[in-house]
Amino acid sequence: MITLDGLTKRYGGKTAVDDLTLELTPGTVTGFLGPNGAGKSTAMRVILGLDAPTCGTALIGGRRYADLDRPLRTVGALLDARAVHPARSGRDHLRAMALSQDISFSRVEEVLALTGMTDAARRRAGTYSLGMSQRLGIAGALLGDPQVLMLDEPVNGLDPDGVRWIRTLLRSLAAEGRTVFVSSHLMSEMERTADRLIVLGRGRLLADESMERLAAGA
Ligand code: ADP
Ligand code: ADP
């Protein structure tokens, strides 16, 4: 569902993503592991068309993000939970996203319920804890009922209940046949979540292993 072919992103002389070639498959939670600065966010931003690749390609279901008809229905993403306008309520934020892509307000209520944000959604996003912002971001990612989900450090700032909740959610999304791509700088967050682990270091692919094989080798 997601295909990267020789994907490279440079900022000036600095190579953030270096010749990344891989394929992400449906029904799988793929963990994207690497220390801060490894290039995980950059790779996700390029896949989402928020940044142009220097060379190589990133395709979602065979198409570039920019060529997707109603992108939220194909791919949902959580990149920066704090990017929501602070004066806007969580509900209004999701409704604006929904309106832009012909998604119903009843679907907004569905994803709010799914993320436990129904009550909080009437408050301004600026009053949210990081954990609530993450939940709202995940609600936004789920809004279009997409087959592909890309979540950049979704567990950051969550309490243990929140971490367990995300794990259960990601596992059930993959069980429904979706392609789930989730980044983290902590191996411990991936252990009971990912089926497959892609390790990135200084923009380069260092390892690509099934979790089963990793566990057996440990
Ligand atoms: P990660 O998500 O793994 O922490 P990033 O993708 O954020 O890594 O960053 C990878 C590298 O690219 C870092 O060295 C970072 O400083 C650099 N970088 C990311 N975005 C930009 C940008 N807009 N301009 C210049 N350098 C950037
Ligand atoms: P604004 O209200 O300023 O237009 P929004 O946050 O409502 O900003 O979103 C603007 C556009 O960004 C949306 O139409 C949508 O296409 C895209 N977008 C926002 N959040 C996501 C997301 N989680 N996943 C994919 N696209 C998103």
Label this structure with key terms.
binds adenosine-5'-diphosphate; alpha/beta; six-stranded mixed beta sheet; three-stranded antiparallel beta sheet
Word description of this protein:
Strand 1 (2-11) and strand 2 (14-24) form a beta hairpin. The protein has helices at 40-47, 90-100, 105-114, 130-142, 160-175, 187-190, 211-217, and strands at residues 2-11, 14-24, 28-33, 55-60, 75-78, 148-152, 179-184, 196-201, 204-210. The chain is globular and about 45 Å long. By secondary structure, it is an alpha/beta fold. Helix 2 (90-100) crosses helix 3. A six-stranded mixed beta sheet has the order 5-6-7-3-8-9, sandwiched between helices. It has a three-stranded antiparallel beta sheet with strand order 2-1-4, covered by helices on one side. It has seven helices and nine strands; from the N terminus they run E-E-E-H-E-E-H-H-H-E-H-E-H-E-E-H. The chain starts with a strand and ends with a helix. The protein binds adenosine-5'-diphosphate (2 copies). One adenosine-5'-diphosphate is lined by residues 11, 14, 16, 34, 36-42.
